[in-house]
Prior knowledge:
Helix content: 40-55%
CATH class of the largest domain: Alpha Beta
CATH architecture of the largest domain: 2-Layer Sandwich
Distance between the termini: 60 Å
Oligomer: single chain
Order of helices and strands: HHHHHHEEHHEHHEHEEHH
Structural class: alpha+beta
Amino acid sequence: xxxxVRVALAPVSxxxxxxxxxxxWLVEFLAQKFSNTPPDRIIQPPLMIAGPTIEALRxxxxxELRDLYATLxxxxxxxxxxxxxxxxxxxxxKQLTPDEAKLMEYLRTRxxxxxxxxxxxxxxxxxxxxxxxxxxxxxxxxxTLAKCQYPxxxxxxxxxxxxxxxxxxxxSTLAQEHFADIRSHPDFLYATTKQAGVAVEIREEVLHxxxxxxxxxxxxxxxxxxxxxxxxxGCNELIYFDVRTEFLHRDAKTIxxxxxxxxxxxxxxxxxxILEGRRLDRPRGKNSKPSRAKRKPKS
Length: 299
């Protein structure tokens, strides 16, 4: 596999200054990416993507962004996935911080589920001397869940992701239960404290990937994960399980396999174990229904 990768990168390596400084790491990374990929799917990457990507890799250091550059390059080298590799993604990566990359990765793992957020406005006075201020802006549990190094910079991160058209903020249509953690947070409780002469407005929002952001994730991070749900066959509890979006419309077998691996929080067993237990507990002998014998065709 390493030889196939080196052959595909040979024309590029001669044209990018400093390629030799990252060649060993890059070939090893790509070899791992393509470890389960047939060699005939590996193609020479377009120079408009490979050149700027390898050039940018020299300055990426050991941050999370280095892997994203290399993943973009691997996507452009995969015959079946190269359609996702857009030339502009190299410039987008140059304008992301490691924390913003973590936020995009977290949105990827949520798949089609948007991330709840709230903006709290406090208004004092009457017209024409009314003044409104944002007590909280795009407040969310997301920077904590994504393990950002500087979660207090979340608003700045969101504005940059919106500027790059990777993500956007929209009014929420989610049920109230999705905002429970936010509404119980000390910062939210403080921002919504009642005070005489002050009107408080709470705007519920969601942060979600744009179409451009979805393609960016597919090219630089991997397949999205979609959370699906079904009822436990043992106790009817609602079970959530994850399936990569590439399988949603073409591989029902994969979806069933993902469900069987899901664990019920009440039964403390996987769906497969519950179904297997039912099969073993099925009555045998006199009380069991005999299987119908196949009729022999008439001669």
